[in-house]
Amino acid sequence: MKTALFAAVALAAGVSAAPYNALTARQAAANGPTDAQILNYALTLEHLEDKFYREALANFSVSDFTAAGFDASVRTNIVEVSSDESTHVSFLTSALTKAGATPVKECTYNFGVTDVKSFLMTASVLEGVGVSAYLGAAADIMSKNYLTAAGSILTVESRHSAYIRNAVGESPFPTPFDVPLDFDEVYTLAAPFIVSCPSDNPALPVKAFPTLTASPKNPKNITTGTEITLLTPTYTVKASDGSSPIYAAFITVTGPVFAEATPVTGGFTVKVPAAPEGTAPIAGQSYVVLTGCNTTVSDDTVAAGPAIVEV
C-alpha cells in the first residue's frame, strides 16, 4: 500500500546529460541510471565530504583537538582522510571527463559544525552514509571497470568510517553487514547539508524524501526493544485510506525489518525490532524510513526518511 504524504518533497531535476556510450544507452533503455549519472552521484557525495574535511581542518587546529579531549594523532589522521576524499574527487572528475560526460562541480554547503566534537560526530555519520551509498549503487553500475573503481573507493570509505567511529567512542565494526541505501535515500541524507549548486551542474535523477529525525538526535544505548521517537514536525504521514497503519522499516542488506509505528504529536514512536534469525542484524549506524507498506521498501513506498539511529 502506498502512503499519502502531505509535505513538499524537494526534487533535483530528472534526466542528466545525454548518453555518452553504449553502456549508458543500455541503462537508459532499462530505465536505470546511467554510469555517467552514477559517477556524478558519487562525485556529488565526494565533493561534499571533500569540502567538509577541508573546511574543518582550516577551522580546527591541533590544539583545538587536544582541548576537546582528542589526541593530536586524530587530527593527523583526519588530514589523511581529507586527502583521500580530494583524490576521490579528482579521480571521478577525470573519469567522467575522459568518458565524454560533464562532471558536477562543488556546491555550497552548511554543515552545522561548531566544534571538534560536532565535526567528528558528523564525520562519522557522513562516512557511514558514504559506505552505504557506494554499496547501494554497485548493482546499477554496468561497466566492470567502473564497478571495480567504485569498490576500491568503498573499502577506503569503510576504513575511514571504522577509524572515526572508534575515535568518537563507537564500535569500529558494530555489525557483520553494512547497509545499502538507494540513490534517493542517500540524497535525502545529503540534501540538508547542500545550500545551493552551480546552475550548470548536470541534473541527477534523484529526489529527497521529507526529512525524518530521531529524538534525541543521537540517542544513546539503543538496542532491540528500545522505544525511539521519529519526528515529522512540519508534515503529516498517513496511509492513503486514512486508517491503515504506518510502519517503521529498518533497512538491512537482507531486507527491511518492519515494526508498526504509533502516532504521537509531531511524529511516531516505534520499538526497534529484532531482525529475523539468519538475516543481517539491526546494528551500528542504522537507517529507518516511514512507510504504509510492510512487505517492501522502494521509492514508491517510502513516505519519509531515512532517519539515522545508532543501535
Description of the structure:
The protein has 311 residues and is an alpha+beta fold. The protein has helices at 22-29, 35-59, 62-67, 72-98, 116-137, 144-167, 183-190; strands at residues 3-6, 108-109, 194-196, 213-215, 227-231, 236-239, 246-250, 257-264, 267-271, 285-291, 302-310. It has a seven-stranded antiparallel sheet, covered by helices on one side. The chain has a two-stranded antiparallel ribbon with strand order 1-6. Helix 5 (116-137) runs antiparallel to helix 6 (144-167). It is globular. The protein starts with a strand and ends with a strand.
Features:
two-stranded antiparallel ribbon, 39% helix, 7-stranded antiparallel sheet, 11 strands
Topology of this structure?
Blueprint: E1 3-6, H1 22-29, H2 35-59, H3 62-67, H4 72-98, E2 108-109, H5 116-137, H6 144-167, H7 183-190, E3 194-196, E4 213-215, E5 227-231, E6 236-239, E7 246-250, E8 257-264, E9 267-271, E10 285-291, E11 302-310
Antiparallel strand pairs: 1-6, 2-3, 4-5, 5-9, 7-8, 7-10, 8-9, 10-11
Give a short summary of the structure.
The chain is an alpha+beta fold and 311 residues long.
Distance between the termini: 28 Å
Structural class: alpha+beta
Strand content: 15-25%
What is the string of helix and strand elements?
EHHHHEHHHEEEEEEEEE
Strand order of the largest sheet: 4-5-9-8-7-10-11
Oligomeric state of the chains in view: single chain
Tally of strands: 11
Task: Please tell me how large the radius of gyration is.
Answer: 19 Å
The backbone outline, from C-alpha atoms, is globular
Poorly predicted ranges: 1-29
**Helical residue percent?**
25-40%
Mean pLDDT: 89
Q: What can be said about the biggest beta sheet?
A: 7 strands, antiparallel
- Number of distinct helices: 7
